[in-house]
Design a protein that fits this description.
The protein is of the alpha/beta class. The chain contains 20 helices and 10 strands.
Length: 614
């Protein structure tokens, strides 16, 4: 039975991804609700049915009180069949209706609705550009992805479990009292007006207050995760107290915003008790007055009393449900700030896959300043011939990393063009472009998965033998066999920790190299590929790297100039422009910037700080 309800909705059903999702709350939620349309309608109807049954029971309790005034000897003879049918209804129909209602809510809607939102939100965020992620905290992004689905699920739950039920119940209460005596309806209607005013007052304040509290909680998460992610820096600089204070500032802000939110609920609770007192006195007192005048039966008084007491107990729950509804809407609205951001870097509608022929790269007047007046690249022209190996040199901020990021299309250039085999990369699909480029970065971070998973990330369909061969070429095979993790996994099955923290820098770099070797892309980008290696391992890896370069178009960034001295050509960047290019020997003879770099090296490193002062 459970499986039937659980499988009514497929949370992974295909859908059309949008580059510009709605930034308004209700249209945003409506997109996620489309697969649930029929289920929502049925659930709403069942909420009304359940409320009607409960009102009917109160009505019938009043009728039983009136029946108690008849002759006890004649009661079963006259009303026995009726009472039997009511008993069967209470024992069979009422549980069936309630069961269907809660099964739709608990088994169909709640698990699948949150899953659908989390799945689609994660897909949407992963489509964002690298630059988008660089402008936010990973912790805050993850927090919003995780807290929005349960908040949206709570919104839907309260809409059907409380709001639709309450509306149906109150309408039924008005009808019940009006059928007993229309005058009993008057105090109930007056109470409903006052209750509605209290709801409006609460809702207007809870939404903004809950959003502020949610924002504050996300700020706490962002700061805490930032400290944990950079724990080595925290410990190395002995900044435990600084980080505690930094987090305390956000935690205190979260406390203050939560206090303001709770003040609203305190005022709501006290006012609600007063209003409920007026409801009980008004309806029950009026019913007693009608009874004393002989215009209402004892059953009517009993039904009115039962109804008002039931409403008295329900109103607090309804108010909390409404408050929860709008509070969770505030959480969803905060999550929208991340999930509903437009995808800025997208493929063109007619984008084609990259067709690799020779591996020729052309930069034409390439300009990019990250939206600033300076930095980046300025009108760079460069042609890298098929199979040519280019070394890229320059001070920090000269534009080397910018060139690589633009080539990978992590950003769209502000000016100029990049062509690969005559194809402008903005006319190509991003995935096909990056599948044909192998990249070894200076920051060799790894996924918190097994060594095998990390190497196979370069080519998931590779065989075990190919994977092991790549590890051997990267001089990683021997140390991988000696790895183990706290869960007892060893070798290629050992987990490497978040960003590969359980490994040394050199070990991480060699696994990264194995991944790129396995990928075997025709274009190879190296950004300080051997910076984390000791001299002995570097010498072995250097030979491997030159083997990798055979037949590929290569661009290698290096501060350790000895690693690129054998390149076919060296390009020197300064302040975003190409100022020198040629072979190592030719550039030394020019006695220019490259020769100056070479002369100032110590152990083969470029003295960036000294150069930055010049």
């Amino acid at each position: 039975m459970f499986r039937f309800f659980e499988n009514l909705i497929d949370p992974y059903t295909p859908y059309t991804e949008k580059d510009t999702p709605s930034r308004e709350l209700w249209p945003f939620l409506r997109e996620y609700c489309v697969p649930f349309k029929r289920v929502f309608i049925l659930t709403g109807l069942m909420s009304i049915v359940v409320a009607a049954i409960e009102i009917g029971l109160i009505y019938y309790m009043g009728r039983i009180v009136d029946l108690l005034g008849s002759d006890p000897d004649q009661l079963w003879d006259t009303y026995g069949t009726e009472l039997l049918w009511v008993a069967l209804f209470v024992l069979l129909v009422r549980p069936l209706a309630q069961g269907l209602d809660v099964a739709l809510l608990n088994n169909t809607i709640l698990p699948n609705f949150g899953t659908l939102i989390r799945w689609r939100a994660h897909r949407q965020v992963l489509r964002q550009s690298v630059g988008w992620f660089e402008n936010d905290f990973a912790g805050r992004i993850a927090n919003r992805i995780m807290q929005t689905p349960p908040a949206a699920g709570e919104v839907v739950f309260q809409a059907f479990d409380a709001i639709s039920y309450a509306l149906a119940y109150m309408l039924g209460a008005v009808i019940l009292l009006s059928t007993s005596d229309w005058r009993l309806m008057l105090p109930l209607l007056a109470w409903l007006v006052l209750y509605g005013a209290l709801v409006k007052w609460t809702v207007q304040r809870v939404g903004p207050a809950s959003k502020a509290a949610s924002d504050a909680r996300s700020q706490v998460t962002g700061r805490v995760v930032d400290a944990y992610t950079n724990i080595h820096s925290v410990k190395m600089f002995a900044h435990h107290d600084l980080e505690v204070g930094f987090a305390k500032e956000a935690i205190e802000n979260a406390r203050e915003t939560f206090q303001k939110e709770m003040r609203i609920f305190t005022v709501m609770d006290v006012t609600l008790v007063l209003l409920n007192g007026l409801l009980i006195i008004g309806v029950v007192g009026w019913a007693l007055a009608l009874w004393t005048m002989g215009e209402a039966s004892v059953g009517v008084v009993a039904a009115a009393a039962a109804l008002t007491l039931r409403l008295n107990s329900m109103t607090g729950w309804i108010m909390w449900a409404l408050s929860s509804f709008f509070r969770e809407l505030g959480v969803v609205a905060e999550g929208m700030e991340t999930i509903a951001q437009p995808i800025a870097l997208v493929d063109k509608a007619d984008a084609k896959p990259l067709v690799m022929t020779d591996g020729r790269i052309e930069l034409q007047k390439l300009t990019h300043h990250y939206g600033r007046a300076q930095g980046g690249l300025q009108a760079v022209d460069l042609v890298v011939k098929p199979g040519e190996r280019i070394g890229l040199v320059g001070r920090s901020g000269a534009g080397k990393s910018t060139l690589v990021k633009l080539l990978l299309r992590f950003y769209d250039a502000e000016g100029g063009h990049i062509l690969i085999d005559g194809q402008d990369i903005t006319d190509l699909t991003q995935d096909s472009l990056r599948r044909n480029i192998g990249m070894v970065q200076q920051d060799s971070s790894l996924l918190h998965r097994s060594v095998r998973d990390n190497i196979l990330y370069g080519r998931p369909d590779a065989t075990e033998a190919d994977m092991i061969s790549a590890a051997k070429q990267a001089q990683a095979y021997e140390f991988i066999l000696d790895l183990s993790d706290p869960e007892g996994r060893t070798g290629f099955d050992a987990r490497v920790g978040e960003r590969g923290v359980k490994l040394s820098g050199g070990q991480r770099q060699r696994i990264t190299l194995a991944r790129v070797i396995l990928k075997n892309a025709p274009i190879l980008l190296l950004d300080e590929a051997t910076s984390a290696l000791d001299s002995e391992v570097e010498a072995a890896i250097q030979e491997t790297l030159y083997g990798m370069m055979a037949g590929k178009t290569v661009i290698a960034i290096a501060h350790r100039l000895s690693t690129i001295a054998e390149m076919d050509r060296i390009v020197v960047l300064d302040q975003g422009r190409i100022v020198e290019e040629g072979t190592h020997d030719a550039l030394l003879q020019q006695r220019g910037l490259y020769a100056d770099f070479w002369g100032r090296q110590s152990g083969g490193f470029l003295k960036l700080d000294e150069e930055a002062v010049d």
